[in-house]
Write the structure tokens for this entry.
Amino acid sequence: MGSKKSKPQPIPDFETPWRDIDWNEKEDLEAELTNIQLNHPELRFVRILLHGPVGAGKSCFINSVQSVFRGEIKTKAFEQANAKKSCTKTYKSYTITDKNAVILPFVFNDVMGLETQDEDGIHPKDIVNAMLGHIEDGYKFNPISPLSDGDPGFVREPSLEDKVHCLVSVVPASSISRMETGVINKMDNVRKEAMNLGIPHVVVMTKVDDDVCPLVNKDLTQIYRSRKIKEKMLESSHRLGPPMKCIFPVSNYHEESNMNNTKDVLILTALLQIVKSAKDYIEEQH
């Protein structure tokens, strides 16, 4: 009788975190973001454009950011659980306010999700139009035909404030490996357009505690000890283009009714890098 084959042993997680993070710095992160100085006479805020596949958590990330600064669960952007089609239909700006209802110096724009079929989801050229500031707030997207000069909703002479100052790709850790090539190609084309324009690109990797890694699912503070999460980040870097230092895993608020300090710190850490990148871009426009 042959001996039974032994099962392959799982690769162990890291003994120490491979990226430093202070879980007690929430207040410091909030203060730094609240007090960002743009030092530009034309700007009240930096504009952050979120894009990615349907169901990645773009709207949920906006709501999570608002929740962190208000200290309670909030819903500004419309969300839909298990969405198969994009629930975002129009181009809309979302300001973020603190507990005193003060508007903070950054604004988000959400767009339709990207899909493989050209007749579904946002047309990649409209993401470029948004980056250039050509899309009017409230414009309803047409997946078949991107906005062009002369169309209603086209801003012919956008100001610096109309333009996007940082492009953020939102991708789910739970399905980055299964993202269709067509969607990846569209995201790659958008990234290349952003690079040509000098616009910084950051990746927010959502759903890190969605059965991706037992260690993280049990304790979110172990996220940078997780080999599985690092593998997902490396895969995001490989498939989407940016270096690891520009990829930030987060856990959005999607089912909780109470706030969580660990989630807050991850969200604020990602947001601070996004805002700093946007500010650097703006300073280069002088």
